[in-house]
Amino acid sequence: MKLDIDQIRNGCNQFNLSGLKSAIPLSDGFANLNYKIITDQGYFLYRVCLQQSNIKLIHWEIELLLSLQRFDFPTAYMLASKGGDYLIDTDHGKVMIYEFKNGHEPLLNPATVGEIAKALARLNLFPDWHRFSRKNVINMDNCIGLIEKFKDAPVQYPEVYPYFKDQTLFLKAFVQKDLPKGIIHGDCFPDNTIFQGDRLVAIIDFEEGCVDHLLMEIGMTINGFCFVDNQIDPVLMNAFLREYNRIRPLTQEELELLPLYIQWAAHGMISWHLKYYLIYKKNYKQLKRVMELMNRVKILKKTRLPQIEM
């Protein structure tokens, strides 16, 4: 799907954005069509929501972002339309417009990793999290349900399916323990962050935001920011944990379970790739990522984490 400039201009008019100068297509996601637009009022992100089944989740994200705005969290916020809505109907679909934050993906170093840790610790302490009851799409029930589909899956991966079953059963008891919960971003990787130099400008794309164990946020972000050449980097991991712990101190049980939650986050990513792509159609890029994550977990299970320096 490709939009012409007049379609985007008509959408902008509903948000009181005038003088559209250009609309630059950005990489398309599975659920969205994105354009960087330049108007008389500045730069914005023009998003067309392609999956109508996700409208309920979009409204959940809108409510969360409005709450985070009052919490002064560093992200890209939405514009309200003339009618005060954040999601509008157009002839080309449902549209949202966000602030466009200038910057770049970060280099992985202790300073940038520490910036992410401080922001996520604040997010995980968000006080009104009980109002947001969305479950993480990465959860044990979904993993078990996925295993049940393997036998009749259109595409078979004998090198993946037995491993996935064994690792799911291994992790099951650990990830269901009662740990601190709250709002998590759930997908904090470098491509979902914007930096200027070593300074964090915004953590974006809350589409996977949910309520879960806060240790899942830590495990997922360590997977995103603290691995180099598929090996955990002790300097980066300690930088993350040190800055995170200063704002939200980890419990002793969280510290003990941290190695398993780093595995669980990697396993959850594997489940996502399988569920939405690979069991239905062969995809070399997706399979390569799954194999990389499998090897990561196998290495983690054989080695002790570097000493954590708080």
Features:
11 strands; 16% strand; two-stranded antiparallel sheet; alpha+beta; 310 residues; five-stranded antiparallel beta sheet
Provide a concise account of the structure shown.
The protein is of the alpha+beta class and 310 residues long.
Number of H/I helices: 9
Order of helices and strands: HEEEHEEHHHEEEEHEEHHH
Residue stretches low in confidence (pLDDT < 50, at least 5 long) are: none
- Measured by DSSP, the beta-strand proportion falls in 15-25%
Overall 3D shape: globular
Helix content: 40-55%
Distance between the termini: 49 Å
The number of E-state strands comes to 11
- Structural category is alpha+beta
Give the mean pLDDT.
94
Radius of gyration (CA) equals: 20 Å
Q: How are the strands of the biggest sheet laid out side by side? A: 1-2-3-5-4
Largest sheet: 5 strands, antiparallel
Q: What would you say this structure looks like, in words?
A:
The protein is α+β, with helices and mostly antiparallel strands and about 300 residues long. The chain has 9 helices and 11 strands. It has helices at about 5-15, 55-70, 110-125, 140-150, 160-175, 215-225, 235-245, 250-280, 285-300; strands at about 20-25, 30-40, 40-50, 90, 95-100, 180-185, 195, 200-205, 210-215, 225-230, 230. The strands form 4 sheets. The protein has a 5-stranded antiparallel beta sheet with strand order 1-2-3-5-4, covered by helices on one side. Strand 10 and strand 11 form a beta hairpin. Helix 6 (about 215-225) packs across helix 8 (about 250-280). It starts with a helix and ends in an 8-residue tail after the last helix.
